[in-house]
Amino acid sequence: LRDDNQCGRKGNGTGKRWGNTTPSCLQNILKRVEEGSEREGTALDAHKELEMVVKACNEGVRKMSRTEQMISIQKKMEFKIKSVPIISHSRWLLKQGELQQMSGPKTSRTLRTKKLFREIYLFLFNDLLVICRQIPGDKYQVFDSAPRGLLRVEELEDQGQTLANVFILRLLENADDREATYMLKASSQSEMKRWMTSLAPNRRTKFVSFTSRLLDCPQVQCVHPYVAQQPDELTLELADILNILEKTEDGWIFGERLHDQERGWFPSSMTEEILNPKIRSQNLKECFRVHKMEDPQRSQNKDRRKLGSRNRQ
User: What are the protein's UniProt keywords (predicted)?
Assistant: First the structure.
């Protein structure tokens, strides 16, 4: 279960997200009120309002930093293809980094040459992928792009050491309005998984309900705070409870935090797996109580309580 020692929310002016101690406070309250009672409804309503305030504050900080980041990125880009406007109020960076692009015919002789791979640099935004090559002067020459919704990925399996951590990226419609395929090599298994998750989120769970996802997943609890180092990572605070959605052999977890459903990658060393099924069940029960606020039936019951209160006055 979550740590019950604190019952306040931390804030800061450094551009980092606000803390997560309010859910702990709410759980302390929920343990002392009857399920389905008016007091429980009041606690859930208060939690919802607090979360709205926190999300608004976090979003304000994000927008300022995102705008600065987009301006900086656009200044560094030189287009070999038709220019794509990068700066947009509705666009932000999800992930950037260097990968190795496979080149040349797939012959056994070619696979042994050092020229098999060449460096490319990817900028992945929430709605757009830009593929570049780094050039002198801290600049990037753009040679291809595609809407994020038209990306597909496929992992290569059992291909030997040379093709370890290699995956296929397919652009269904690129900058030249045609399909393009890239064979890309990452520096590690976790980096490959992170790129694949960011480029094309798992569509098998896209339309699965939050409740169904919870029931299938193992859980971990944060035992060491962690500050996200990249956009696809998740900042963790002590006692955060998360579902494990994916795990790599080299020590990274892609997880979903129970109380706010935020997703991201984090080192497994920052967490401990919750092996006790009774504790996992209790965590789910508390999570379901919190998310009852999103239930339309609960909103109708709330309106009836208000109406009954007015009638008694």
Answer: Cell projection, Guanine-nucleotide releasing factor, SH3 domain
Q: Would you say 110 and 116 are in contact if contact means Cβ atoms under 8 Å apart?
A: yes
CATH (one of 3.40.640.10, 2.30.29.30, 1.20.1250.20, 3.40.50.1700) for 80-199: 2.30.29.30
Instruction: Quickly state the pLDDT bin for 8 (edges 50, 70, 90).
Output: very low
CATH number of the structural domain 21-64+204-312: 2.30.30.40
21-30 vs 277-290: helix crossing angle, rounded to 10: 100
Encode pLDDT of 106-134 as tens digits. Answer: 444 444 545 578 999 999 999 999 999 99
**Domain range list for the chain:** 21-64+204-312, 80-199
Give residue-wise pLDDT tens across range 241-277.
999 999 999 999 999 999 888 999 999 999 999 999 9
